[in-house]
From TrEMBL:
Locations listed in the record: Cytoplasm
Active-site residues from the entry: K364
Reactions catalysed: D-fructose 6-phosphate + L-glutamine = D-glucosamine 6-phosphate + L-glutamate
GO molecular function terms noted in the UniProt entry: carbohydrate derivative binding; glutamine-fructose-6-phosphate transaminase (isomerizing) activity
Gene Ontology, cellular component aspect: cytosol
Keywords: Aminotransferase, Cytoplasm, Glutamine amidotransferase, Repeat, Transferase
A biological process from GO: fructose 6-phosphate metabolic process
Assembly: Homodimer.
Protein name: Glutamine--fructose-6-phosphate aminotransferase [isomerizing]
Sequence ranges assigned to domain SIS in this UniProt record: 42-181, 214-359
EC number, as in UniProt: 2.6.1.16
Reported function: Catalyzes the first step in hexosamine metabolism, converting fructose-6P into glucosamine-6P using glutamine as a nitrogen source.
Length: 369
């Protein structure tokens, strides 16, 4: 069943180009509009939305954090992302014009389900982004967009994350279009870039040899830090989660700019710091800020593992290890930058002799609160 792979996780990492392609398939109709799967909401309902909450757990929550950047940029609707397990306990302000987006691979995560039910009690509209047909979360939602990732067996989420991002980008584009904030040709331009990503992922996956080697080198590290800005920040969080979950190592993700407010004190001689660098194209300021953050950590002894776009020459001087990813628009970059972090965590876990597909203390689907 593992198709020649040592672990389901490796197989699922390699399935990502196809999973993303299938999630995109048939989403743009002849009129250039994004098509969702089950929409029991009218376009007018979507035009009336004045606030969005995304609720999810773990990796799906990180997909939500990336989505916030895209949704706010494209639709100009305020969007908050909340851990599903915290949502209802803080008594959020919700009403008919609130859209709650519940992201869940399994569709059965109890925390996310309870957040969704709370939202519905408050009359909010709920849209599910889910990988499992007919599961509870999409059944109880007003609209659904399925990710077509196929079954994910490994406990650590990989292809689910990339397909969640893909689907959530489509949700953002759909909302922007229905509300008239983006024209069909603008939406089509983003979709075209999305459609290029499966081939880019295939190319990226073919270059993962050095990452596997690095994983072997890092097997005895006592802590690994991850830094990023903008959409690179949730990618840093995701990289750290994968490492904790699989390698049972201390790992933490930080917003690169926040490091100097305390956590930089953690950095010692040789501390590995994985740095997710934004594209230098378009948003040069963001890129330059991250480069200076890399210099800061390096000056304090960090061993820097830099994930940067092809053609970004400025970073090379500050990288102890440089991992290249294909060029994408800034908002879509997590579809690329996450992949080496998955491979790294998987490699470190394997090098430590851990059970990669079934890490200790974890279950694939968490059906208790
Ligand atoms: O099925 P869900 O997407 O609702 O699951 C949410 C989390 O439990 C899940 O993403 C978890 O964090 C993964 N094991 C992370 O790799």
């Amino acid at each position: 069943e593992k198709g020649g792979y040592d672990y389901f996780m490796l197989k699922e990492i390699d399935e990502q180009p196809r999973a993303v392609a299938e999630t995109l398939l048939g989403r743009l109709n002849d009129a250039g509009q994004i098509v969702l799967d089950e929409v029991r909401l009218t376009d007018q309902d979507l035009r009336d939305v004045d606030k969005i909450f995304i609720v999810a757990c773990g990796t799906a929550y990180h997909a939500g954090l990336v989505t916030k950047y895209a949704i706010e940029h494209w639709t100009r609707i305020p969007c908050e992302v909340e851990l599903a397990s915290e949502f209802r306990y803080r008594d959020p302000v919700l009403d008919r014009s609130t859209l709650v987006v519940a992201i869940s691979q399994s569709g059965e995560t109890m925390d996310t389900l309870m957040a969704l039910r709370h939202a519905k009690e408050q009359k909010a509209r709920v849209l599910a982004v889910c990988n499992t047909n007919g599961s509870t979360i999409p059944r109880e939602s007003d609209a659904v967009l399925y990710t077509h990732g196929g079954p994910e067996i490994a406990v650590a989420s990989t292809k689910a994350f990339l397909t969640q991002l893909t689907a959530c980008y489509l949700v953002g584009l759909h909302l922007a279009q229905v509300r008239g904030v983006m024209f069909a040709d603008e939406v089509a331009a983003v979709v075209e870039r999305l459609q290029r990503t499966p081939d880019q992922l295939t190319a990226l996956l073919a270059e993962m040899g050095p990452v596997r080697q690095l994983a072997n080198d890092l097997r005895d590290a006592s802590t690994v830090l991850f830094i990023g800005r903008h959409v690179g920040y949730p990618v840093a969080l995701e990289g750290a989660l994968k490492l904790k979950e699989l390698a049972y190592m201390h790992a933490e993700g930080f917003a690169a700019g926040e490091l100097k407010h305390g956590s930089i004190a953690l950095i010692d001689q040789g501390t590995p710091v994985v740095c997710v660098v934004p594209s230098p194209v378009g948003r040069g300021v963001l890129h330059d800020k991250v480069v200076s953050n890399i210099q800061e950590v390096r000056a304090r002894g960090a061993r820097t593992i830099v994930i940067a776009e092809e053609g970004d020459e400025a970073v090379a001087a500050y990288a102890d290890h440089l991992i290249r990813v294909p060029r994408t628009p800034t908002l879509l970059a997590p579809l690329m930058t996450t992949v080496p972090l998955q491979v790294l965590a998987c490699g470190i876990a394997a090098a430590r002799g851990n059970d990669v597909d079934q890490p200790r203390n974890l279950a694939k689907s968490v059906t208790v609160e």
